[in-house]
Amino acid sequence: MKYILILWLSLWFVSCNQKEYLCSTYRPVPIEGWETNDTLTIPVDTVRQHGEYAVEVGVRSTRIYPYKYLYLLVETTLKNPDTLMVDTVMCEITDVKGNFQGNGLSIYGKVFPVAVMNMRKGQYGEIKLRHIMRRNPLPGLSDIGIVVTAR
């Protein structure tokens, strides 16, 4: 009986601490160069519960990425009711010594906060991403994504 109680409490604790993902999607970009006009569009599923949602952008980079930072334009468009939010996100790809941030051996992944949005039940839409760096095409990135979780 004691072991059943411990197992039940463990499962309850784990299930209570899991994030509710509304969206967790990555899109590949050409490692040899991501064009400025190549906008990535990621759908956002219908919101099941009214509340605050954290919007984050995920970046997977390689050692050939030439800069310390990556600047992204993030445009969130939601319907029912209509909502438009545009943000510029600065992603720190390497530290001051040139060491890549994030986890990985040949591709380094890291997630950066964009915003906290108050979303209503029934809303849906899309998030568009594009880089706003001067270099075009921009080499060294493998995937760019969006993660939206309930807070």
Notes on the protein architecture:
With 151 residues, the protein is mostly beta strands. It has one domain: Jelly Rolls. 10% of the residues lie in helices and 51% in strands. It is built from 1 helix and 8 strands. The protein has a 4-stranded antiparallel sheet with strand order 1-8-3-6, with no helix packed on it. It is globular, with a radius of gyration of 18 Å. About 3% of the residues have low confidence.
Total DSSP helices: 1
Q: What is the averaged pLDDT score?
A: 90
Helix share bin: under 10%
CATH architecture name: Sandwich
Order of helix and strand elements from N to C terminus: HEEEEEEEE
Uncertain runs: 11-15
Tertiary shape: globular
| Domain tally | 1
Q: How large, in whole angstroms, is the Cα Rg?
A: 18 Å
- The separation of the N and C termini measures 35 Å
CATH topology term: Jelly Rolls
Name the strands of the widest sheet in spatial order: 1-8-3-6
Q: Which class in CATH terms? A: Mainly Beta
Largest sheet: 4 strands, antiparallel
User: What percentage of the residues does DSSP assign to strands (E)?
Assistant: over 45%
Number of strands: 8
Q: Assign the structural class, choosing from mainly alpha, mainly beta, alpha/beta, alpha+beta, or little secondary structure.
A: mainly beta
Keywords for this entry:
151 residues; mainly beta; Jelly Rolls; four-stranded antiparallel β-sheet; 1 helix; 8 strands
